[in-house]
Design brief:
Blueprint lengths: L7 H8 L9 H11 L12 H7 L4 H15 L3 H35 L3 E6 L2 E6 L8 E5 L7 E13 L1 H4 L5 E2 L18 E2 L4 E13 L5 H4 L13 H30 L4 H15 L4 H18 L2 E3 L3 H6 L4 E5 L10 E7 L2 E5 L10 E3 L2 E2 L6 H12 L4 E9 L4 E9 L2 H12 L4 H7 E10 L4 E8 L4 E7 L1 H6 L1 E6 L2 E4 L2 H16 L3 E9 L9 H4 L3 E10 L6 H10 L3 E5 L4 H11 L7 E4 H6 L2 H7 L3 E5 L3 H13 L4 E5 L5 H6 L2 E5 L5 H6 L2 E3 L4 H41 L8 H19 L25 H26 L4 H22 L15 H19 L1 H7 L6 H31 L1
Parallel strand pairs: 9-23, 9-26, 19-22, 23-25, 24-25, 26-27, 27-28
Antiparallel strand pairs: 1-2, 1-3, 3-7, 4-5, 4-6, 4-7, 8-28, 10-11, 10-22, 11-12, 12-13, 14-15, 16-17, 17-18, 18-21, 19-20, 21-22
Adenosine-5'-triphosphate (ATP) binds next to helix 13, strand 17, strand 18 and strand 21.
Length: 906
């Protein structure tokens, strides 16, 4: 018998699971051992050894190895050996970097791994999809990506999109009824749900019948081994640039060799020097360091609760000019408490905060007993019946003394939780209610309908529809209302009255929920929501506060200073939205509030005309979000858009930076996103943008450092050859500089802190090149200066000691190294070395110290002196070195700084 042919009991029996308790943890462990984790087999990764050897396939490294061979053949064993060691070290460094980048990207994948809600030991818990086993009972809600093959046991308007399996993109309805035939195609197995498919509507419960490679998806898994590209636009551009730079470096190097030979230098020396120079000057490691910098930045973002799903987003974040944010839970705390009620023409208030079900009721300002008002009772109890939230009193031991602390914890939607708490404050309890009413059917809430309904059966056998939702929507479905003690037709005057109450509540930033009902005829069967939600009797309103998150106001202000506009998009009432937007500083003078009804009428082009002035979009449906993104993009904005539901996915995808909520977000929204907020908090978006800007700046910093260093290295050799001087640096010194002096500090620059004003600059244009804002000039001028001072130090020493070339070369070597190590601090600022605290970046200080110490070892430790062709320097020579090395950065930077200060004070 196939699973879809078996009745529920047989299925549960075959899988040895109890429907009310699910599996025990012990049983799960046992089954995990038997069936293995719920994973599809992945393609094998390249081994560590493969990655390691990959480091040596670089063209220049091969040339270098060839040069080593030549040295070896010519009997220059020390040279040959040293070059080998340096090549090896270079390889190890590249290997470590690549592994590190890979690891942090893996960690990312794990963080955004899908989860499933399963029943374990009588409780619904969220577990990683990899940890589920056959027999687990699974709850499905709209937006879930199903993680295993299930036999469905309960469904409520459940629709699943199975295109990944069947190719059919229209979602199919699912039901729990047994199918009789034995050869039903997958596409027609209406009581089964399969791994990899998507719940687009409704909800359900199923039991897992297959996991991992045993699932239908597992059977075709080899078709799905897609690889995602992780290359960012910047990386791509740098790779292209790298090719140009290689050409330039090769030409210049060839020039150095040619002139050197013409000037009478030995061919072997010149070739070796030339090859070393080419190796040093070609920034072959640049893309790797960029990846590392991106990966490190991504790790910092994780610490700040922002999980990057697509690496290119890191770059785009720095360009964001508009953030469109959901209200509930992102700008606000999503901790709702009912404070105001309106029923039968009377206004009530109730005290208390949070989920603690204790509070006092006031009617028209006077304390009153809620049990005395039948209407209020109806409002509160119906609010609880049309509801899926549960409140649980949990006891936790806290602190050193392990003192017991009791706390009410909400499981479910906070809006519904608030209704539960309000009813409990009036003395209701769950058991009592469920004795009076049993639920027959549910039409789940969705943000397009903005309503939710249940059909319940009373003890007397009568059935009712109870609907709750946005008041304006509910009112259109009502024919009458309870007023005073009687039921009245819903006249325009009464509608107006209710509308005014809603507006008053909204002006106090309250979220409003209306509750209505209707007795059903004996035979009446509502199969779809619209059949139930009509001809209703309006009962009343509950207004709840949802306080803004305390850190959001400041974050919005910071964004504004950074040239980023924040826009609120919410399904909530216009008044509520405007009130909260006002409190948060989103809606300021001149800002417009637009509602969903208007958006529906307008085309993208019409919206484009006003989009820059709109600060709040209220009562929108998720479908409107796409229009907003398009209109903003048409105005040239780089848009970050948040979302959590299934219907948000298209807008999230279309936005330049799609952001999904980590806690409340559905799998569909997460999959469409490039960034996930693990705390759902707006302030995290700001932190991520700041980090994104910083990462980009850091990349610019080390490009600037490495390239200026390379320019210096090439120029000193080129000038010396042109002036007919001896070689200022020997091959091995050049290789050393490339490895130690260039490599370490550049990596430390990749971890640099943000400059004070990163969030005071306007967003970067996405078309801006890496070398924009004067970077080329900075690289060329500083590189030129570094080359010149090295040459001056070299020739002065040579003049003083004409027969001690090795001394002059040592001076040149140390000058070049020191000039670079000083220049690295200059690269930390867009302005000058004087604009930042030198010791702020501990990694950089460490890297510079290590580089300096290693350099001292090279010139003072006799065995290394032999290898690197150096001698110990005198004090006078050190003075010369330091004076020369500081000219490019300290002196020129100082002059620039003075000029800037003068200009500023004018
Ligand atoms: P956002 O999260 O985008 O800021 P929102 O959460 O306020 O928006 P929705 O959840 O779409 O927007 O809610 C829209 C309206 O639907 C609310 O103002 C409320 O009146 C009503 N509503 C919200 N949740 C429920 C629910 N669980 N049942 C019935 N009605 C609801």
């Amino acid at each position: 018998m196939k699973w879809y042919q078996m009745p529920e009991n047989d299925v549960l029996h075959a899988l040895q699971v109890d429907k009310h308790d699910g599996l025990s943890e012990q049983e799960v462990k046992k089954r995990l051992r038997t069936y293995g984790g719920n994973k599809l087999e992945e393609k094998e990764r390249p081994s560590a050894l493969f990655v390691f050897f990959g480091q040596f396939k670089d063209f220049m490294v091969l040339v270098l190895l060839a040069a080593t061979l030549i040295s070896g053949l010519l009997g220059e064993y020390i040279d040959a050996l040293t070059i080998m060691v340096i090549v090896l070290l270079n390889g190890i460094l590249g290997f470590v970097q690549e592994r590190k980048a890979e690891k942090s990207l893996d960690a990312l994948k794990e963080l955004s791994a899908p989860q499933m809600t399963v029943l374990r030991e009588g409780r619904w818990v969220k577990v990683l999809s990899t940890q589920v086993v056959p027999g687990d009972l699974v709850k499905l809600t709209s937006g879930d990506r199903i993680g295993a093959d299930l036999r469905l046991l309960e469904t409520s308007g459940l629709r699943i999109e199975e295109s990944s399996l069947t190719g059919e993109s229209v979602p199919v309805y699912k039901m729990e009824q047994v199918l009789v035939p034995s050869n039903v195609e997958i596409a027609d197995q209406s009581n089964m749900a399969f791994m990899g498919t998507l719940v687009t509507q409704g909800s359900g419960v199923g039991v897992i019948v297959a996991t991992g490679m045993k699932t239908e998806m597992g059977k075709i898994a080899h078709l799905l081994q897609e690889t995602t590209t992780l290359v960012t636009p910047l990386q791509r551009r740098l790779e292209q640039l790298g090719k140009i730079l290689i050409a330039v470096a090769l030409v210049l190097t060839a020039l150095v060799v040619l002139i050197g030979v013409v000037q009478g230098h030995a061919l072997y020396t010149m070739i070796l020097a030339g090859v070393s120079l080419a190796v040093a000057a070609i920034p072959e490691g640049l893309p790797a360091i960029v990846t590392v910098a991106l990966a490190l930045g991504v790790q910092r973002m994780i610490k700040r609760k922002a999980i990057v799903r697509k690496l290119p987003a890191v770059e785009t974040l720095g360009c964001a000019s508009v953030i469109c944010s959901d209200k509930t839970g992102t700008l606000t705390q999503n901790k709702m408490t009912v404070t105001h009620l309106w029923v039968g023409g009377a206004a009530w208030e109730v005290t208390g905060g949070g989920y603690e079900p204790e509070g006092t009721f006031f009617k028209h300002g006077k304390q009153a007993d809620p049990q005395q008002s039948r209407r209020l009772q109806q409002l509160l109890s119906y609010g609880w019946l049309c509801n899926n939230a549960t409140l649980e009193l949990r006891t936790e031991k806290q602190g050193l003394l392990r003192r017991q602390k009791q706390e009410y914890v909400l499981d479910g939607d906070p809006t519904e939780g608030a209704l539960v708490v309000a009813a409990m404050k009036a003395g209701y309890d769950q058991e009592e209610l469920s004795q009076h009413f049993s639920r027959e059917k549910e039409f789940p809430f969705d943000s397009t309908r903005k309503m939710m309904s249940v059909i319940v059966k009373g003890r007397n056998g009568r059935r009712y529809v109870i609907t709750k939702g946005a008041p304006d929507v509910i009112l259109t479905q009502c024919r009458s209302l309870v007023y005073g003690t009687a039921e009245e037709p819903l006249t325009p005057a009464r509608k107006n009255e209710v509308g005014q109450v809603v507006n008053q509540m909204a002006a106090q930033a309250l979220r409003t929920i209306a509750i209505a009902y209707r007795p059903l005829d004996r035979e009446e069967d509502c199969r779809q929501a619209f059949e139930a939600e009509r001809g209703l009797i309006f009962i009343g309103l509950q207004g709840m506060i949802d306080p803004p998150r305390p850190e959001v106001k400041e974050a919005i202000m910071e964004c504004r200073q950074a040239g980023i506009k924040t826009v609120m998009i919410t399904g909530d009432h216009k008044g509520t939205a405007a009130a909260i937007a006002g409190q948060l500083g989103i809606l300021t003078a001149g800002g417009k509030v637009l509602d969903g009804a208007t958006l529906s009428k307008w085309s993208v082009a019409e919206l484009e005309q006003v989009v820059d002035d709109v600060a709040v979009y209220a009562r929108v449906s998720p479908e409107h979000k796409l229009k907003i993104v398009k209109a903003l993009q048409a105005r040239g904005h780089i848009v970050a858009m948040t979302g959590d539901g299934v219907n948000d996915a298209p807008a999230i995808k279309a936005a330049n930076i799609g952001i999904a909520m980590g806690i409340t977000g559905t799998d569909v929204a997460k999959e469409a996103s490039s960034l996930i907020l693990s705390d759902d908090n707006f302030a995290t978006i700001k932190a991520a943008i700041k980090e994104g800007r910083n990462i980009y700046e850091n990349i610019r910093k080390f490009i600037r450092y490495m390239m200026a260093s390379n320019v210096g290295e090439i120029l000193v050799m080129l000038f010396a050859m042109m002036l007919g001087m001896p070689l200022p640096l020997v091959a091995i010194q050049i290789l050393w500089i490339n490895l130690v002096t260039d490599g370490l500090p550049a990596m430390a620059l990749g971890m640099d802190q943000a400059e004070g004003d990163v969030m005071k600059r306007p967003p970067r244009s996405p078309t801006e090149g890496v070398f924009a804002r004067g970077l080329t000039w900075k690289i060329l001028s500083r590189g030129f200066m570094i080359g010149v001072v090295t040459l001056v130090a070299f020739s002065l020493t040579l003049e003083a000691h004409p027969d001690e070339l090795i001394r002059a070369q040592t001076v040149a070597f140390v000058t070049l190294v020191m000039a670079q190590l000083i220049h690295v601090f200059d690269c930390r600022s867009e302005y000058s070395i004087y604009h930042r605290n030198l010791f702020e970046n501990r990694y950089l200080v460490g890297a510079v110290l290590i580089s300096t110490l290693l350099m001292l070892a090279v010139i003072y430790y006799p065995p290394l002196q032999v290898i690197f062709h150096t001698v110990a320097l005198t004090e006078r020579e050190w003075l010369l070195v330091l004076a020369m090395a500081s000219i490019p950065t300290v002196v020129l930077g100082g002059l620039q700084f003075m000029k800037r200060s003068k200009a500023a004070s004018k």
